[in-house]
Write a structure and sequence with these properties.
Elements (H helix, E strand, L loop, with lengths): L3 E5 L4 E7 L2 E7 L2 E5 L3 E7 L3 E10 L5 E10 L7
Antiparallel strand pairs: 1-4, 2-3, 2-5, 6-7
Length: 80
């Protein structure tokens, strides 16, 4: 609609709205209208995120070894 957009974020998403190179608004779970042609939006998940990983390697004596784990992280300061 004439270059305008609307965005609504859930409470676990932090939005940063840059307009013409300057931070115009920011916050968790905000909703607003913006002009698409001079705006940049950044979305960050501020809830806990789990990332599983598996490494399959071969040791020096040609034995197969598997390491499994789970990495959990949370973004504390989204503006940094």
């Amino acid at each position: 609609m004439l270059g305008f957009g609307y965005i609504k974020a859930p409470p676990t998403t932090y939005l940063l709205h840059y307009q013409s190179g300057r931070l115009k608004r920011h916050g968790a779970g905000i909703a607003f209208w913006y002009f698409r042609y001079n705006s940049v939006l950044a979305k960050l998940n501020i809830g806990s995120t789990d990332v599983p990983f598996v490494f399959n390697e071969i040791t020096a004596d040609v034995q197969e070894a598997t390491v499994q784990g789970d990495l959990t992280f949370r973004i504390v300061d989204p503006q940094k």
